Amino acid sequence: MIKEENSKSVHELLYEKLILNNKNGFSKISEEEENSEQNETKKMKIDSINNFCKDYKIFLKKSKTERETVDEVVKLLTDEGFRALENLDTLNSGDKIYSVNRGKGVLSAVIGSEPLEKGISIIGAHVDVPRLDLKPNPLFEEHGNAYLKTHYYGGIKKYQWLAIPLAIHGTIVKQDGAKIKICIGENEEEPVFCITDLLPHLAHDQMQKKMNEAINGEILNVLVGNIPHEEKKVKDRVKFNTLKLINEKYNIVEEDFLSCEIEIVPAFNPRDLGFDRSMIAAYGHDDRVCTYAACRAIIDAKEPPKTAVCILVDKEEVGSLGNTGMQSRFFEDKIAKIISLKEKSYSDLMLRDTFSKSICLSADVGVAYDPNFPEVFEERNTSIINGGVMLSKYTGSRGKSGASDASAELVARIRNIFNKNGVIWQMGGFGKVDIGGGGTIAAYVANLNIDTIDCGVPLFSMHAPYEIAGKFDIFMAYKGYKAFYEDKD
Ligand code: MN
Ligand code: MN
Predict the structure, then answer these.
(1) pLDDT at 235
(2) At which of 203, 237, 266 does a domain end?
(3) CA of 44 to the centre of ligand 1 (A)
(4) Comparing 6-10, 339-343, 438-442, which segment has the lowest mean pLDDT?
(5) What is the 396 CA–ligand 1 centroid distance (Å)?
(6) Domain at 51, CATH number
(7) What does 150-205 look like in DSSP terms, one character per residue?
(8) Residue 106 Cα, ligand 1 centroid: separation in angstroms?
(9) How far is the centre of ligand 2, averaged over its atoms, from the C-alpha of 385 (Å)?
(10) Is 265 helix (H, G, I), strand (E, B) or coil?
(11) Residues 142 and 35 in one domain
(12) Fewer beta carbons within 10 Å, N or C terminal of the chain?
């Protein structure tokens, strides 16, 4: 829902929506308008949206796991002159740095002109996405087929993972520490993998079951082979043959599966959606859309007065635990390090003072009003697709349980930054109050005594193998994040 004082922006928004892609979709620009100076600006705006989204699709295509996402982010950062924090022994205003956390998270920062103790501007997003992980002993043969056993990660609707093309991505660490990267199923020439579903003809009993009971987690076995090995003496010849093929390709043995992180992900690539190409359908918008927008914002931010920090974390989908999740000490450790290198001195109090004056945008996706399911939404307090970047005062469920709930003062401050910088935004919510809800990293950042508010992109089909985001919202998230970093008040 857009606020009244934004009414001019609403008009602008609708106009931009109509001509979002004037090259390949339909256009509302008349020939008369074509030449006007005002229209030049509009065309530039549309080009900016389309170019940004084009780059985002390229990023997303290469970022199907948290490790791949971090690798892509580091490429973006180093291309723009960001340097590894670990290699520096002093920091000055204008310096750009990054620090990787075990390949699954990364903090980047641009040192501001003001002292850190006046507070820093933080944007936090997560790089993990719901998926199927391989179990430690994954490979088995059953009835002449080879399968991989999985354990799902994060909140999925299990039935959505059957009968779709799947790819295998991940890292295997050999006993000697050597790392082998795996990625198969993405190119046209490569095979894909699949979890089979029951044909409707024989699914009478299955179709009577509740949706959360119809597919048992233990049947999420990925079909990976069918040809038996020629050696007749070995047991499980199809499994043996599959293992041999894997060994030839990656030089690994069965025991190596015990020390691997292999993820089964949808094999589809990001595509424009709609005749007007106004949306993007893809795997992993949650939360790589905010990840990408935040990275581009810290790269493009012009001389941020306060130190700008972008923290990308893992494990959000399973509670933000572990040393790569938001609840780990990594974030505090790196800010402490930055303080010590910038201020040439350090105390615990300096770190606490810095946090107490800092603001964080918890950059995560939210729900968009879906007219196919009106029964779960409260229309007046739900974001819409292509209505602008979404602010959420609180998340949580049933009585705001689990929410950090941003203060009215913070909402006012962010509203002001967005309005004065032409960022089109909307206030979001998480469905009807008694129905359910969700959470983000916001509460864990807020626990550090940092003013935190959720701010991201609304989605259709969140957590599905194919999620939908609006191009206009993606661009406005970037614009909003950049304005936040550059804000001088
Ligand atoms: Mn998320
Ligand atoms: Mn999520």
Answers:
(1) 94
(2) 266
(3) 31
(4) 6-10
(5) 13
(6) 3.40.630.10
(7) EEEESS--GGGGSSS-EEEEEEEE-TTS-EEEEEES-STTS--BB-----GGG-HH
(8) 16
(9) 17
(10) strand
(11) no
(12) C
Quick one: average pLDDT of 88-114?
A: 98
Asked if residue 35 has pLDDT above 70, the reply is no
Q: Are 238 and 105 in contact (CB under 8 A)?
A: no
Rg for the chain, CA atoms, rounded: 24
**Under DSSP, is residue 110 helix (H, G, I), strand (E, B) or coil?**
strand
Report the distance separating Cα 278 and Cα 55, nearest Å: 15
Tell whether pTM > 0.90.
yes
Closest CA to 289 of 308, 307, 270: 270
The ligand placed nearest to the CA atom of residue 317 is 2
Q: Are residues 455 and 399 in the same domain?
A: yes
Indicate whether 83 and 141 sit together in one domain: no
- Asked if 15 contacts 28 with a C-beta cutoff of 8 angstroms, the reply is yes
- At 212, is the secondary structure helix, strand, or coil? helix
Beta bridge partners of 184: 168
Measured in Å, residue 367 CA sits from the centre of ligand 1 at 10
Q: What pLDDT is stored for residue 14 in this prediction?
A: 52
Look up residue 330 and give its amino acid.
F
Tokens of 139: 């490979």
Environment of ion ligand 2 (residues, CB < 5 A): 286
Question: How far apart are the CA of 119 and the centre of ligand 1, in A?
Answer: 26
Tokens of 17: 């929506």
Q: Is 370 helix (H, G, I), strand (E, B) or coil?
A: coil
Q: Which residue range(s) make up the domain with 379?
A: 10-129+283-486
Contact 427, 381 (CB under 8 A): yes
Distance CA 331, CA 74 (A): 17
Rounded CA-CA distance 407/214 in Å is 42
Number of Cα atoms under 13 Å in the Cβ half of residue 87: 8
Alpha carbon separation from 208 to 13, 96, 202 (Å, rounded): 45, 58, 12
Over 283-337, what HEC string results? CCHHHHHHHHHHHHHHHHCCCCCCCEEEEEECCHHHCCCCCCCCCCCHHHHHHHH
SS3 109: strand
Lowest mean pLDDT among 23-32, 95-104, 169-178, 292-301: 23-32
